[in-house]
Specification:
About 25% of the residues lie in helices and about 25% in strands. It contains 9 helices and 17 strands.
Length: about 350
């Protein structure tokens, strides 16, 4: 439930917001929806709601919810929210562990539509996720023995990107290769299939983190992560004399990547954003001597080694980016992030 609970399911005994009521209407054989304020209610329905309620429903329908399974929020895309409700109430996946096999066995194999790096066409590709091998891999040809790419679960991330990929079930998978981010864009026409892949990746990440960081349930948020912010900015080079060029920027935790196109397979460059305790800061505006920018709302990122200069088209964009940078800079660095920072400094 993501908003005011002004709607209810008279068959499940739960209250919900308007957004969720629309999703419940997709399963009319399971959930019959009524407005709390506008629809007439029978005495038996009121008594049923009184004797059940959201807490009782959660205890029943989420009794065996896996720790790794992603519970969507109001800001998540429709396929995540729709499949959560279907998994919970229609398929009863969190009442019976045997119904969780598609994403909990440590192995998953299937075909996804993958965007080609060079031509931009989506083609069917075979994917295999193996916890035992510690990798996700895909094959360019169905009968191929050797994978086209091998992605270690250690650096794997998945984020739903329906608008960017222009498909309701679009998923962006990222991983590190030689300390540089690689992007893979996939989708499946079946929403359940795509969400099962997403949670299978989370399960694999969960089990990896249990071994890497034993006894720390606090690692849960790191199973998968959404990008802090994305959008276009202009940038100039290290000498600050080069012309400003429009680039697509992605803020992925402490990695700021810039790409020529949002669907590029890899970034043109990456910047590590540390913490204020380590001499990182963000400032509005540009140095007075800088010229050549088309957009007027500047941002300066100060690092121990140099300054990075960006410009935004609108003042609201500038404020949003400064807030995004500030959220990272104001957060102390974790021990493992110092190792990431050192890798950036030793990049050729």
């Amino acid at each position: 439930m993501f908003g005011k609970p002004e709607w209810a399911s008279t068959t499940l005994g739960v209250f919900m917001c308007q957004s969720c009521s629309g999703l419940h209407r997709n399963i009319p054989h399971i959930s019959r929806v009524k407005s709390v304020l506008m629809d007439p209610w029978e005495t038996a329905e009121v008594q049923f709601m009184t004797s059940n309620g959201n807490t009782a429903a959660k205890d029943k329908y989420e009794e065996k919810l896996p720790e790794f399974y992603y519970k969507p929020t109001k800001s998540d895309c429709s396929v995540l929210r729709d499949q959560w409700i279907r998994a919970k109430y229609e398929r009863c996946e969190f009442m019976y562990k045997e119904r969780q096999e598609p994403y909990s066995t440590g192995y998953r194999e299937g075909f996804l539509w993958k965007r080609g790096r060079d031509n931009g066409q989506f083609l069917s590709r075979k994917f295999i996720l193996s916890e035992q091998e510690g990798v996700l891999k895909y094959f360019n040809k169905h009968e191929a023995r050797e994978p086209k790419a091998i992605m270690k679960i250690q650096t794997l991330n998945a984020s739903f990107q329906p608008q960017k990929i222009d498909h309701t079930n679009g998923l962006q998978i990222t991983y590190l290769k030689d300390n540089s981010t690689r992007n893979i864009f996939v989708y499946h026409d079946d929403g359940k299939e795509m969400v099962d892949w997403f949670n299978a990746i989370r399960a694999a990440r969960f089990h990896y983190l249990q071994v890497a960081y034993p006894g720390t349930v606090s690692q849960l948020p790191k199973l998968t992560r959404n990008f802090i912010k994305e959008g276009y900015m202009e940038k100039t080079g290290p000498k600050h004399t080069e012309g400003f060029k429009r680039r697509w920027f992605t803020m992925d935790d402490r990695r700021l990547m810039y790409l020529k196109d949002p669907l590029d397979a890899f970034a043109r460059g990456e910047v590590f954003i540390g913490s204020k305790e380590n001499s990182y800061s963000v400032l509005p505006g540009l140095p007075h001597s800088v010229q050549g920018n088309h957009w007027q709302f500047g941002i300066t990122i100060v690092t121990p080694d140099r300054r990075f200069l960006f410009t935004c088209e609108k003042e609201t964009d500038q404020k949003d980016w400064i807030a995004a940078f500030g959220s990272v800079i104001n957060r102390p660095m974790a021990p493992q992030e110092y190792a990431v920072e050192a890798q950036f400094k030793h990049k050729p």
